[in-house]
Amino acid sequence: MRYDIIIKDVEIYRKGEYMIRREKYLQQLIANRDNGFPKIITGIRRCGKSFLMKEIFREYLLSDGMKEDDILILELDDDRNIRYRDPLYLGEYVREYCKGRSKCVVFLDEIQMVYSIVNPNLTEGKHVLAKKGDSETVSFVTVVLGLSREKNIDLYVSGSNSRMLSSDIVTEFRDKAVTIQVFPLSFSEFYEYIGGSKTEAIYEYMQYGGMPLAVLKNDLEKKEYLKSLFETTYFRDIVERNGLRKGEALDELCNILSEGTGSLLNAERIANTYRSVRHENIDKQTVEKYIWYFTDSFLLKEARRYDLKGRAEIGALRKYYFADTGLRNARLNFSFPDEGQMLENIVYNELVYNGFTVNVGTFDNIEKNRMGTSIRNTYEVDFFARKWNRQYYIQVTDDISNAPTRARELRPYIMLNDQVRKIIVINKPIGECLDENGYTIIGIADFLLRFIRE
C-alpha cells in the first residue's frame, strides 16, 4: 500500500559540503532514542527543529543501520497533510504505516496544528471541533501518548509555540515525555561554522543573530530574509493564531519591546509609553495579553527580578529579550545599533542555552545622602545565573575603561560583598583576568566560547 504522506523540500543548512550539525541536540536525541517516551521538540519557528529531525537525526539513523522505509516524517503545517490534523485520523495513519515493522521512527512536525475534537462516542461518531471548556476531548496529547505506547514506535514530535510547554500540557505529559527545546544557533555553533576573527564574528552575530538560514546569506540577503521572516512568519502567525482583527497595537508594542530590550518593564509602563507614542489608550490587561502572544511564540523570553539579599523573585518588573538579536534588529529595520543592548541579549540567550537559570539581580541598600538622611537605594546586577553548584553575578558592558562607567558597574558588587563569583563581561578581545577587587573581567568571545561552556 502506498501512503499519501507529503513531505516538503527540506531546507539544507550547508555551505559546500559542510552541515551545521547542532551537535548538542543530536546528542540529546541519541541519548533518548528508544526510551519508551515521546520526545517533544519545541522552539521558535525556523530555528532548525525540522532540519534537526529530518536531516541531522535521520542521517544518523540511516548511518546506524535503520532502513529508509522505517522512518516516517509527517509535516502537519503542510496543507496537503491537513487530514491528519484530526487526532484520530493521525493516530490511525501512523499505526497503519508502522504495522508489521519491528521498529519505526516517527517524526510529527508542528504537532500543535492538531486540533482537539469532542470524544466521538458522545457525538454519534462525528468528529466535532472541541470548544474551550469541553471536558471529554481528544487532543494531540491524547494521540502522542497513545502512539508512544506502541512497542514498535519511537516517537518524536515538534511544536513552535508555548502551548507545547503550557502548565496544562506539562501536567498531562508529566513523567511521560522528554522535552528538548531548540534555540537559534548559539554563538559557539555560529563561530564553529564561520570561523575567522572572533571580534568580527561577534559583531556579525550581534547584527544578524543565529537563525540558521540567515547565516548562509550575504549581508543584504540577511536583512531582507530576517525582515521578511519577522513579518510573514512570526507577526502574521501571532495575529492569525490569536484571532486579532488588526495588528496596529500589537505592532507598536513590538516596537516598544524591541527598543527597550534589556530595560525593566511592566504592563503599566508599556501602556504609558504606548499612549505617549500613539496618543491612544491601551489598558494593562491588553498589554499583558499581547506580551504573552510574543512569549507564546518563543519570540521573546522574560527575565524576572530576583532579590539578591532576600533570595526570592520579586515584583512585576521584567526584562524581555529576543530569541535572536537578528530578529530584534530586523524589527527596527537595523537602525537601532545599541551594542550594549545586543550584548546583554546575547549573554542572556547563551546562559539559557547552556542550562543556566537566569534572573535580573536586584537589592536595596540603606545609605546616607549628602544631607545625612537615611535613604533606600535600589541596585541592579544584569544577571544572576545558576547551574547546579555554579552561581555568578554578571555585568555586561561595552567598555569599562571610562572611570564613571567602571564605578557604576562595580558598585553593586562592592556593596553585595558576598561569596558569589562576580563577573564583568566586556566587548573587548581579551581573555579572563582579575581586577584589584578579585572580580573576573573577561572578553565577550572568551566568555561565550569557553567560560560558560566549561
Automatic annotation (TrEMBL):
Keywords: ATP-binding, Nucleotide-binding. Pfam families: AAA_14, DUF4143. Residues 38-190 form the AAA domain. It comes from the Bacteria. Residues 236-394 form the DUF4143 domain. One of its GO terms (molecular function) is ATP binding. This is ATP-binding protein. The lineage of its organism: Bacteria, Pseudomonadati, Spirochaetota, Spirochaetia, Spirochaetales.
